[in-house]
Design goal:
CATH class of the largest domain: Alpha Beta
Shape: globular
Largest sheet: 14 strands, mixed
Number of domains: 3
CATH topology of the largest domain: Rossmann fold
Helix content: 25-40%
CATH superfamily of the largest domain: ANL, N-terminal domain
Structural class: alpha/beta
Number of helices: 18
């Protein structure tokens, strides 16, 4: 009997290659020398011929030559402190020029830079410092890490000020911030300012550049808290893995050349967010671009800087883009129309928004002169950045018909597959776990062999995200598979499916479903109502409750609803603050007999 013909699976067929530029394979097949990320990056930085600034920070323009010199200065400090190849140093703080210098100097000297998540508790931070003997800490966050720094393993703590690299007038205004008087007298001996560290340790005159070591952790980055059940994982990345991502990016850049010499990017993300670090800092530096830095993370500051700096590339979670467009809507209503024609590669990453919100964002961007739509992307710390991107050099032809937004085609050099619970790859339009294969894959999770075994199998990264590939090979992501509730009979219901169902109601702009950190862990929903609805809150919530009763399986119900204003609260990296909402125990309504009954869970 003849066998049935084999139907190619998405990871075999790779229909997404239709979106690549001609000649991309030549770059993917290119052999790069065995070198550190810094050596690779330095060549790109200097090839610009110092024609364009490397960084702009609070009005100070930092040349490409100055950046290289600063990396070497901090390399001498690192070596002068006695750190050698294979050692670790701790970096804890936001996006300052010094953090970029020290990160790259560590890689140059063969030292592993460890960048913990800035949002973890002091207790969790204790487990993340590894074997670091030296710490570089932002003075505005020293109190957060103070108890950890008191450990005997830390011989030196270098305090980095936000004002050190500012332009001179701004530095004078902010100079009172630069002092040591509040740093704790018992441990002051190990503390030192950045300038004092350079004077004391920067006289080292031995060799600086370490030879690359295959498989050695060059950086330890940190997830932003979405891996597993809200746990931030430390992830080791090698030099060769990071350079592989550059190869992928160069192949991608053949289409529309979003990374182009003389253009600009804007980075507000802290350096532990390695996706942002790659897209907004090191890839632009390599390509002759100028990076505008600002460590302030508020949505208000994000808007001001976008409209002031007018960057060609910007990356931020959906919440910040929603907030930006809301403010632009207000300006348009007042008779002003901001010019957004400067965008070449605006990116929504880290967390998306609703399709309706994305549609409105793109309509406003087009009205304000942008020639490109907001690009949705999907990146992972475990792959040192980009996995998929829905990028078109021009045009606004997007599909908003599904419950979630499209995050695009796999990046050149990246393979994506959708798998069921038994590990069988699924076909197009079938929902399952997203798995990723690429040469830029992490070395592994730090001190977590169980997770390495569970999530890194056969060259595939098990992402823990639920999604599907459409018939063109573009990816749609629904959410984390760990975010679910379970009926008494063991049936799982994903929290994002509950939220998506609520959003289908025309009166709902956004929604979040969660279990509360209260007795019996009640299942609740936080709802943002659409603008201009004519119904009463009681009418809307009563209808939503009926909708949920029909949607949820027997034995599971939404116990209460809480109305939120304008937009769901976000954390410091611009993602919805699920921890906050799971601990918000007051202000809810139960629906009984078509009436609202206030309820608290204190």
């Amino acid at each position: 009997m003849d066998k049935m013909p084999h139907t190619p699976l998405p990871s075999e067929e790779m229909r997404w290659k239709q979106f690549y530029a001609d000649g991309y394979e030549d770059i993917l097949n290119q052999e790069f020398p065995n070198q550190t990320l810094w050596k690779f990056l330095e060549q790109g930085i200097l090839s610009d011929g110092n024609r364009h600034d490397a960084l702009v920070y609070f009005g100070r323009h930092i040349s490409r030559q100055t950046l290289v010199e600063q990396v070497r200065i901090w390399g001498r400090v690192i070596k002068g402190m006695g750190l050698k190849q294979g050692d670790e140093l701790l970096l804890f703080g936001p996006s300052l020029p010094e953090f970029i210098y020290i990160m790259l100097a560590a890689d140059m000297t063969g030292v592993t830079a460890n960048l913990p998540n800035l949002m973890v508790t002091p207790e969790a931070l204790d487990s993340m410092v590894g074997k670091s003997r030296v710490a570089f800490v932002f003075d505005g966050m020293e109190t957060t890490i103070r108890k950890t720094l008191q450990r005997k393993q830390f011989k030196h703590v270098v305090i980095l000020s936000a004002t050190r690299s500012m332009s001179y007038p701004l530095k004078l205004v902010a100079s009172p911030l630069n002092n040591l008087k509040h740093w704790g007298s018992r441990h002051r001996a190990k503390y030192i300012t950045a300038d004092a560290a350079i004077l004391r340790f920067g006289q080292y005159d031995g060799p600086l550049e370490a030879a690359p070591v295959k498989g050695k952790p060059a950086f330890i980055f940190c997830s932003s808290g979405t891996s597993g059940k809200g746990i931030a994982n430390q992830i080791a990345i090698s030099d060769e893995g990071m350079i592989s991502m550059f190869r992928n990016a160069l192949a991608f850049n053949m289409k529309g050349t979003p990374f182009s010499e003389g253009t600009t990017s804007y980075c507000q993300l802290p350096p532990f967010v390695c996706t942002g670090f790659f897209v907004l800092v090191i890839a632009p530096l390599y390509r002759g671009m100028t990076v505008y830095l600002d460590p302030r993370l508020s949505a208000e500051q994000y808007i001001r800087n976008i409209l002031t700096f007018r960057p060609q590339i910007a990356l931020s979670p959906g919440s910040n883009w929603v907030y930006l467009i809301r403010q632009i809507d207000l300006l348009i209503q007042s008779g002003k129309r901001p010019d957004l024609s400067f965008f070449r590669f605006p990116i929504m990453g880290g967390e998306g928004c609703t399709p309706q919100a994305l549609q409105h964002i793109n309509e406003v961007m087009q009205t304000c002169g942008s020639t490109v739509a907001l690009t949705s992307g999907y990146g992972l710390s475990e792959t040192f950045s980009v996995c998929t991107v829905d990028y078109e050099p021009a045009g606004f032809d997007k599909d908003y018909s599904r419950p979630v937004v499209c995050v695009g085609a796999p990046f050149p050099g990246v393979t994506v597959g959708i798998f069921d619970k038994q590990g069988k790859e699924l076909g197009y339009e079938q929902r399952g776990e997203i798995r990723v294969k690429t040469d830029s894959l992490t070395i592994g999770y730090v001190n977590n062999p169980e997770q390495n075994k569970a999530r890194l199998q056969g060259g595939w990264l098990h992402t823990g995200d639920l999604g599907l590939l459409d018939r063109n090979g573009k990816l749609y992501i629904y959410g984390r598979m760990a975010q679910y509730v379970e009926t008494g009979g063991g049936e799982k219901v994903y929290l994002f499916d509950i939220a998506n169902r609520l959003r289908e109601d025309p009166a709902v702009k956004d929604a979040l479903a969660c279990r509360l950190a209260a007795e019996d862990s009640p299942l609740v929903a936080h709802v943002v109502l659409a603008d201009g609805i004519r119904e009463t809150e009681q009418e809307v919530l009563t209808r939503l409750d009926s909708l949920m009763t029909a949607f949820l399986p027997s034995g599971l119900r939404l116990e209460a609803y809480r109305l939120e204003t304008e937009q769901l609260r976000i954390n410091i990296v611009g993602k919805i603050d699920r921890h906050y909402y799971s601990h918000l125990l007051t202000g809810y309504y139960e629906i009984r007999n078509a009436a609202l009954h206030p309820v608290n869970y204190m």
